[in-house]
Specification:
alpha/beta, Glyco_trans_20, about 20% strand, 23 helices, six-stranded mixed beta sheet
């Protein structure tokens, strides 16, 4: 904080030790440009969810603009945690994965760290490196060397590796005396009973293997306790026919990369290795655990499950018996990847993506909300702002032909309630608005007409639009009107069995049958599985309904099939046209909604403004519920704020209405 220039500088935070640092920086500087890279693994959601501070750590990472992981597995675990614990879904767009978090897009990057090529090449160029290589080559003359380089801890699988090597010698007696496993053991990074237990296990297994298969002039397993200099490790890399990385769980682990570059050699080493010229073929073999970060990058490596001793022993046999041409081809493939994806490439790539991710700050307004480790920043477009009650009430008072359009679920009523019927406050505020003769008020919902008619029967002057506009109830009529489209609903016979199949296969899902549409709900299903099944169902339905006059759409925890030409946007167009035809074009439009279907209303209103279907002086308020990307220009935080704002408008109407006895009773009832 003492040195940063938040308007110019980029901050790159590294590894799990500093996971919560982004929260403190974001609290101080709302627009700071932040990147984070996790060098270790990210646990699965089943493990991570046991942490008492799980949400605080997730929110801290989400305060970054770019989060980097070594592999897709680690990124997938993080995204799954965000989905299950914070309800955040990710989207992939043009090759980039992003999470929308309070108006900011948090980008996810997957790129393993590379090695410093210059460092290894400089070590190989030192005058005494060929001397060390020559000494080792003479020491292990006539033997095939398998190499392991690991820290001493419970995750590196050294004991399992030794057991597999013992099984190799047991099953292949011809390898006794000719194959050696050299294990370099780096000094433990910590001390404790667990480290001592690991060391005891390693020593016991090595001693047993050497006792059974060794002799006076042959030691099958050679343990070299650290610290060992990097130059000495390079010398061992150079003389080893195969490197074995057998960790049961690890981050990236760069040992295979260093081995590949060392095996490529240098002019100084060619003479020692008996290679003539730089064009001489190079070869290497890598046995790598499938549970470490570099495994996906090394497509030519022999991948193993370290817990399967027989599998690892077989891999060692394959490495030893592999033809030279195959070793050369694998080495060439790996060397090309390692040299083109070195640490400089990794840093440049992350830097470029961080700049791209932070470009959003040039066009958004930001401010912080929350306390402590739950601090986060809200980013909104320059024209997207919170709807002020004072502002809309002022415009409301100065207009005389008003159109008020309200979604129901998630707008007037919270999504998480099981009982979706309107409460007294909702009925009261709607009656207050409907009693004003200058108002046309409509509930525009995706729900069926029977539910809406039953729930809103106390609101005699309220208009209803059901099933996204397929049915309309005008206050002056006593019956529902259909949209007028000639609709063939025979497609339901195709869709219903498919939805029933997915419902049976997805616990917590359900089907809602409407007269004009079918909706598959997965809000109560497992978040990951429900989303996955929804994508599958969407693809399935789009393929079988390609020639049918229907639209298949995904919404918030739903997949819906409905006739073409039916949408909430069409409802808005019809209402505006009807009011214009009666000589009272709306000079005040308020439209509130919360999900994707309501974006059709916002888009229709914007089109009406652009085409001058509304008067030039009309006051237009398109408002979404929640801070998220939207066609609307205003937002309210939740349903409580929506009701409070409507109560403000209702109160303004009550003050303007004539004091007739009829109106006085109506006003008192609504208030």
């Amino acid at each position: 904080m003492e040195v940063i220039n938040p308007d110019e500088d980029y901050v790159w935070v590294h590894d799990y030790h500093l996971m919560v640092l982004p929260t403190f920086l974001r609290k101080r500087y709302n627009r700071v440009k932040l990147g984070f890279f996790l060098h270790s693994l990210f646990p699965s959601s089943e493990i991570y969810r046991t942490l008492p501070v799980r949400e605080e750590i997730l929110r801290a990472l989400l305060n970054c603009d770019l989060i980097g992981f070594q592999t897709f597995d680690y990124a997938r675990h993080f995204l799954s945690c965000c989905s299950r614990m914070l309800g955040l879904d990710y989207q992939s767009k043009r090759g980039y994965i992003g999470l929308d978090y309070y108006g900011r897009t948090v980008s996810i990057k997957i790129l393993p760290v590379g090695i410093h090529m210059g460092q290894i090449e400089s070590i190989m160029s030192l005058p005494d490196t060929p001397k060390k290589v020559k000494e080792l080559k003479e020491k292990y003359d006539g033997k095939i060397v398998l190499l392991g380089v690991d820290d001493v801890d419970m995750f590196k699988g050294i004991g399992l590796k030794f057991e597999a090597f013992g099984q190799l010698l047991d099953e292949n007696p011809r390898y006794r005396g000719s194959v050696v496993l050299v294990q370099i053991m780096n000094s433990p990074r910590s001390q404790g009973n667990d480290i001592q237990e690991v060391q005891n296990e390693i020593n016991n297994v090595a001693t047993e293997v050497n006792r059974r298969y060794g002799s006076a002039d042959y030691e099958p397993i050679v343990c070299i306790n650290g610290p060992v200099s990097f130059q000495d490790k390079v010398a061992y890399y150079v003389i080893s026919e195969c490197v074995v990385v057998n960790a049961v769980r690890d981050g990236l682990n760069l040992v295979p990369y260093k081995y590949i570059v060392s095996r490529q050699g240098s002019p100084y080493l060619d003479e020692v290795l008996g290679l003539e010229g730089s064009a001489a073929p190079r070869k290497s073999v890598i046995i790598v655990s499938e549970f470490i970060g570099c495994s996906p990058s090394l497509s030519g490596a022999i991948r193993v499950n370290p817990w399967n001793i027989s599998c690892v022993a077989e891999a060692m046999h394959s490495a030893i018996s592999m033809q030279d041409l195959e070793k050369e081809l694998r080495h060439e493939k790996h060397y090309k990847y390692v040299t083109s994806h070195d640490v400089a490439y990794w840093a440049r790539s992350f830097d470029q993506d961080l700049e791209r991710a932070c470009a959003q700050y040039y066009e958004n307004r930001c401010w912080g909300i929350g306390f402590g480790l739950n601090i986060r920043v809200v980013a909104l477009g320059p024209h997207f702002r919170k709807l002020s009650v004072e502002h809309i009430v002022s415009a409301y008072k100065n207009t005389s032909s008003r159109l008020i359009l309200l979604d129901y679920d998630g707008t007037m009523m919270p999504q998480d309630l099981i009982d979706k019927s309107p409460c007294r406050a909702v009925i009261s505020v709607l009656n207050g608005l409907c009693n004003d003769p200058m108002n046309v008020v409509f509930i525009v919902s995706g729900r069926g007409k029977d539910s809406l008619e039953k729930w809103f029967s106390p609101c005699e002057r309220l208009g209803l639009s059901a099933e996204h506009g397929y049915f309309t109830w005008w206050p002056t009529n006593s019956a529902w009107e259909s949209c007028g489209l000639v609709v063939d609903l025979s497609w339901k016979n195709i869709v219903l069995p498919i939805m029933e199949h997915y419902t049976e296969a997805t616990d917590g899902s359900s089907i809602e049958q409407k007269e004009s549409a079918l909706v598959w709900h997965h809000q109560e299903a497992d978040p990951d599985f429900g989303t996955w099944q929804a994508k599958e169902l969407l693809d399935h339905l789009e393929s079988v309904l390609a020639n049918e006059p229907v639209v298949v759409k995904r919404g918030q925890h739903i997949v819906e099939v409905k006739p073409q030409g039916v949408s909430k946007g069409v409802v808005v167009e019809n209402l505006i046209t009807t009011m214009r035809n009666t000589g009272k074009p709306p000079d005040f439009v308020l439209c509130i909604g919360d999900d994707r279907s309501d974006e059709d209303m916002f888009e229709s209103i914007a089109s009406s403004v652009a085409s001058h279907s509304l008067p030039d002086t009309a006051e237009v308020f398109a408002c979404t519920v929640g801070q998220k990307p939207s066609m609307a220009k205003y937002y309210l935080d939740d349903t409580d704020e929506v009701i409070k704002m409507l109560q403000g408008l209702s109160a303004a109407s009550a003050r303007q209405l004539p004091k007739s006895p009829h109106n006085q009773v109506s006003i008192e009832d609504s208030i």
